[in-house]
C-alpha cells in the first residue's frame, strides 16, 4: 500500500535515504510509467523506498496566472496509478508562489538533500525545475557530486515522431480522439465525478435513462460527441454509451456529460463514479425530431456493444 504525504512536514522523523522521482505526472502516461519504472528498478537495486513527488495545483496555474491546464487525472487517481507501478510514497508538494520562487540550487539542497535524503534522483531528460525553470538534469548531476546523490535522466517515450506528453494527451482528448489518448496513456482516458440530477429527459422521453456526471474541476473533457466507454462504480465496470454536449435537438445551452449504462438499472444519484472513453462514435448532431434521435441512439448503443465486445 502506497503512503500518501502532503507537504514536507509529513515526512516521518528519522526518514532515511530514498530514490526520488519528480514531476507533475498528470495522467501517468506511458512516459511517466517509464520514468517511475526506472525509479522503482533503481530503488530495488539499492534496497531503498521510492518516493514520487508531484505538485498541486499544477505549476502552470501558479507560474502563469489565469492558465489552468485541463487535468488528465485527479490526485487520488494519480496516487492509485503510481502505487500500481510499485512506488512506496506519493508526496504532494503544495505549489505556491513561494515554492515557484525557490532557486534551483536551494530546492536541491533544502528539499532533495536535507528533507528527503535522496540517494538517487530519477527525472526525464527534459526535466526543468526551480525559479524560472533554471534547473536542468546537468545541474542535478553536478549538485549530486557535491551532495552525494546520483542522477538518472530517462529518455522520453515516443513513436512515429510523436513524443508522449501530457500536452499531447490533452490535445487528443480535446479533439475527441480518445483512441489516440488511450494509446499514449496505456489505458482509456478517464474522468471522475459525482452523479447529479439532469433534465430527466433521457428516461422519460427517449427511453434511455442517463447518469449525469458532474466532473471534478478542470477535468479534461473530450470534444462534444458520442463515445463508447465504461461506467465505473466502485469495483463494478459496466459498458456505456456516453454523450457530451448541449443536446441540440432540444435546444440545450448547457454542456453536459451523460452516460447510458447498458443493461444496468439502479439509482446512481450522489455516487462517485468514473467514465472511461474507448472510441468516439460520432459528433454531436441536431435531429429533426425526438423519434429520429431515438433511432440514432439505438444505433449508437448497438455500435457501443460491438466496440466493447459485449452482447
Would you kindly provide a written description of the structure presented here, covering whatever features stand out?
This protein has 311 residues and is α/β, with parallel strands linked by helices. It has 2 domains: 3-162, Rossmann fold; 189-308, Riboflavin kinase-like (Elongation Factor Tu (Ef-tu), domain 3), CATH 2.40.30. Helix content is 31%, strand content 28%. A hairpin with a 2-residue loop joins strand 11 and strand 12. The chain is elongated. The chain starts with a strand and ends with a helix. The mean pLDDT is 93.
Topology:
Blueprint: E1 3-6, E2 18-22, H1 30-46, E3 50-56, H2 59-63, H3 75-84, E4 89-94, H4 97-100, H5 104-113, E5 118-124, H6 137-147, E6 150-154, E7 158-159, E8 162-163, H7 166-174, H8 178-185, E9 189-196, H9 201-204, E10 211-215, E11 225-233, E12 236-245, E13 256-261, E14 272-282, H10 290-308
Q: Could you provide a short overview of the structure?
A:
The chain is α/β, with parallel strands linked by helices. It folds into two domains: 160 residues, HUPs (Rossmann fold, 3-Layer(aba) Sandwich); 120 residues, Riboflavin kinase-like (Elongation Factor Tu (Ef-tu), domain 3).
Task: Give a count of the beta strands, DSSP E runs of length 2 or more.
Answer: 14
pLDDT < 50 runs, ≥5 residues: none
Question: Architecture of the largest domain, according to CATH?
Answer: 3-Layer(aba) Sandwich
Regarding quaternary structure, how should these chains be classified? single chain
Mean pLDDT: 93
Q: Helical proportion?
A: 25-40%
How many alpha or pi helices?
10
Rg estimate, integer Å: 22 Å
Amino acid at each position: 500500500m502506497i503512503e500518501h504525504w502532503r507537504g514536507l512536514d509529513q515526512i516521518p522523523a528519522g526518514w532515511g535515504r530514498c530514490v526520488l522521482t519528480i514531476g507533475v505526472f498528470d495522467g501517468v502516461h506511458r512516459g511517466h510509467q517509464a520514468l517511475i519504472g526506472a525509479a522503482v528498478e533503481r530503488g530495488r537495486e539499492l534496497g531503498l523506498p521510492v518516493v514520487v513527488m508531484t505538485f498541486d495545483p499544477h505549476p502552470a496555474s501558479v507560474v502563469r496566472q489565469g492558465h489552468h491546464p485541463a487535468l488528465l487525472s485527479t490526485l487520488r487517481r494519480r496516487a492509485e496509478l503510481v502505487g500500481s507501478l510499485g512506488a512506496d510514497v506519493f508526496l504532494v508538494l503544495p505549489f505556491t508562489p513561494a515554492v515557484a520562487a525557490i532557486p534551483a540550487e536551494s530546492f536541491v539542497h533544502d528539499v532533495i538533500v536535507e528533507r528527503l535524503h535522496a540517494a538517487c534522483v530519477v527525472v526525464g531528460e527534459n526535466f526543468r525545475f526551480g525559479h524560472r525553470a533554471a534547473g536542468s538534469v546537468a545541474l542535478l548531476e553536478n549538485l549530486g557530486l557535491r551532495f552525494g546523490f546520483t542522477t538518472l535522466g530517462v529518455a522520453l517515450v515516443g513513436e512515429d515522431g510523436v513524443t508522449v506528453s501530457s500536452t499531447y494527451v490533452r490535445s487528443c482528448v480535446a479533439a475527441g480522439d480518445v483512441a489516440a489518448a488511450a494509446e499514449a496513456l496505456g489505458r482509456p482516458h478517464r474522468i471522475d465525478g459525482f452523479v447529479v440530477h439532469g433534465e430527466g429527459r433521457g428516461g422519460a422521453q427517449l427511453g434511455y435513462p442517463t447518469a449525469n456526471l458532474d466532473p471534478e474541476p478542470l477535468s479534461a473533457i473530450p470534444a462534444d460527441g458520442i463515445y463508447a466507454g465504461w461506467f465505473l462504480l466502485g469495483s463494478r465496470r459496466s459498458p456505456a454509451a456516453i454523450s457530451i454536449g448541449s443536446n441540440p435537438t432540444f435546444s440545450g445551452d448547457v454542456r453536459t456529460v451523460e452516460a447510458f449504462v447498458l443493461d444496468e438499472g439502479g439509482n446512481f444519484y450522489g455516487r462517485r463514479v468514473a467514465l472511461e472513453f474507448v472510441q468516439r462514435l460520432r459528433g454531436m448532431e441536431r435531429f429533426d425530431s425526438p423519434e429520429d434521435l431515438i433511432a440514432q441512439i439505438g444505433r449508437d448503443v448497438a455500435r457501443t456493444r460491438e466496440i466493447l465486445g459485449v452482447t
